[in-house]
Design brief:
Pfam families: SCP2. 37% of the residues lie in helices and 14% in strands. The protein has nine helices and five strands; from the N terminus they run H-H-H-H-H-H-E-E-E-E-H-H-E-H.
Length: 213
């Protein structure tokens, strides 16, 4: 976890004992239980366990949210702020290129645009701004509020709900499925400003597009 969250992240984590106890509970289930998606805390609650401080590396300290569970994104967003895992890791502004150039970033946005639909817009309702540094860098937007959706270079016509800053290489990797947004965020490769719940929605959209990128 140090690699993902930096020094001190262990205070927001639990011991591996919780996995062992959850696994033991699963092993006691009948064969028909096979195939179920299980969350360690939930299954242990079903076993009657109420005090989970015994599993905490630092009892009483707020826990790091599980970004791999896509339930209740608003609640996850609040937990991010309460644990100190703020969206922005650095204060300095990334250097942006003055104009777009043909390349992997432009091709990525072209494919993204071809994947848009009214259903995607209806399910997302957000405008994303990407501040990219490096080759093919610059400011790009993904508008998932306007009818049919839209992408483009520069600023969107309306204010962005989420601003994401990263290198062009990481951007392409993220949209092609080679870099998980959660990992990029936790390792500092991705900086986020704005509505975290809507940022999580974008990750779901990326998963749908990975096959085409």
């Amino acid at each position: 976890m140090d690699m993902l969250g930096g020094p001190g992240i262990e205070s927001q984590c639990r011991k591996v004992d919780i996995i062992a106890d959850a696994a033991y509970s699963i092993f006691q289930k009948p064969k028909s239980f096979t195939g179920n998606f299980v969350i360690d805390e939930n299954i242990l609650k079903e076993e009657g366990i109420e005090n989970f401080d015994v599993y905490a590396i630092k009892p009483g300290h707020p826990l790091q949210p599980d970004f791999f569970l896509d339930e209740y994104p608003e609640a996850v967003s609040k937990k991010v702020e309460s644990t100190g895992a703020v969206p922005e890791f650095k204060e300095e502004k990334l250097q942006l290129q003055p104009k777009p150039r043909s390349g992997a970033v432009e091709e990525t946005f072209r494919i993204v645009k071809d994947s848009l639909s009214d259903d995607v817009v209806k399910a997302t309702q957000a405008i994303y701004l990407f501040e990219l540094s490096g080759e093919d860098g610059g400011t790009w937007f993904l508008d998932l509020k306007s009818k049919g959706g839209n992408v483009g270079y520069g600023e969107p016509s309306d204010q962005a709900d989420v601003v994401m800053s990263m290198t062009t290489d990481d951007f392409v990797k993220m949209f092609s499925g080679k870099l998980k947004p959660t990992m990029a965020f936790m390792s500092g490769k991705l900086k986020i400003k704005g509505n975290m719940a809507l940022a999580i929605k974008l990750e779901k959209l990326m998963n749908q597009m990975n096959a085409r990128l």
